[in-house]
Each structure stands twice: as structure tokens, then as C-alpha cells.
Amino acid sequence: MLERPYLSIAVVSYNQEEFISEAIQSVLLQEHPHTFEIIVSDDASTDNTQRILKSFRDKHPDIIKLVLRNKNVGPSNNFYELLLHCSGKYIALLEGDDYWTDNLKLKKQVEFLEINSKYIACTHRYRVVDENGSEISSEYFGPGRPNFGEYNLDDFKNYIYFGLLGSVLLR
After folding, report:
1. How confident is the model over 83-131, as pLDDT tens digits?
2. Distance of alpha carbon 37 from alpha carbon 165, whole angstroms
3. pTM score, two decimals?
4. Exposed site from 41, 98, 145, 152, fewest CB < 10 Å?
5. In what order do the strands lie in the sheet with 64-68?
6. What is the rounded end-to-end Cα distance, in angstroms, of the chain?
7. In which region does residue 44 sit, left (phi positive, over 0), alpha (psi from -120 to 50) or beta (all else)?
8. What is the Cα–Cα distance from 129 to 150, expressed in whole angstroms?
9. Kind of pairing between the strands at 7-13 and 90-95
């Protein structure tokens, strides 16, 4: 029986051939001591996304697992089914057109959750860039942002947190 990975990195994709390589590379460059899996669920891309993903899987068959659809099921179903494939103690979320810039991101977030058992997830601030990598915003502050560092479900109901997925690590 295979060892359960400590971390599952869940990547959702659809027609992201221009960005998917950078997304996967940013995960592979993470510095942490944990066993991990990268699970990518592609929702029947019509571009070269699946070919690129297969190339990564061929280079890292013990780490990268693909869910490649022949028929589009929509973003909600694709994301839901992606989460069902994750088996790690922690799940990090990433969209196929996003990437991580801090190679210690996962290490920092896991350490936080390990010493703060009352939390179910943690997130962080992020930069917003366009398709050319030009910075649009050095740090995103959406409408309704709470003024403190702890958020509960009521806070998230009022906070438009654009791009949330790429910054979340959850139990």
C-alpha cells in the first residue's frame, strides 16, 4: 500500500496552456520536508493543456496524478471531483493560471496550521499580475476586507476575495 501523502496540491485547469507550466513548476519548486502529490483535474481543455500536463506527469509519475476529462463538466463539478482525489492531511489549492512566488509558501502554511489546531485553513496576501506578468496590484484588498487577521465564515460572506484559491491551505 502506498504511503498517504502529507500534502495534496489540487490544481484545477481548463484551457490554460499558456500558464499551466508555470503553475506546476511553482509547486515543484516548493521547499518543505513533506511527502506530497500534485493532482490536476482538467475539464476537457480544447488547447494543449492536457498535452503539457501529460509531459509533467511523465517526468514525475510518482508525484503528479491527472484527471483528464473527455467531456466538460463545468468548473464546480471539476473542482469538487478534484477534491475527492486528494488524500493528504492538508490540501493546497491552485488554479492552472496562477502560480506561487514564495518557495516556502507551503512550509509556512503547514507550520502555522500544525501549531494552531483551532484553525481549519489559512491564506495569505498575493499580487495580481496580467497574462504578461505585469503587476496590476502589489497586494489585493477587496471590498469588505476585515481589519484583523482572523476570519470567520461571516467575514467571508462580505469580503470579495478575488483569486482566493491559490492562497489557501486547508485541513
Report:
1. 999 999 999 999 999 888 899 999 999 999 999 998 888 876 665 656 7
2. 17
3. 0.84
4. 152
5. 64-68, 36-42, 7-13, 90-95, 169-170, 121-122
6. 23
7. left
8. 26
9. parallel
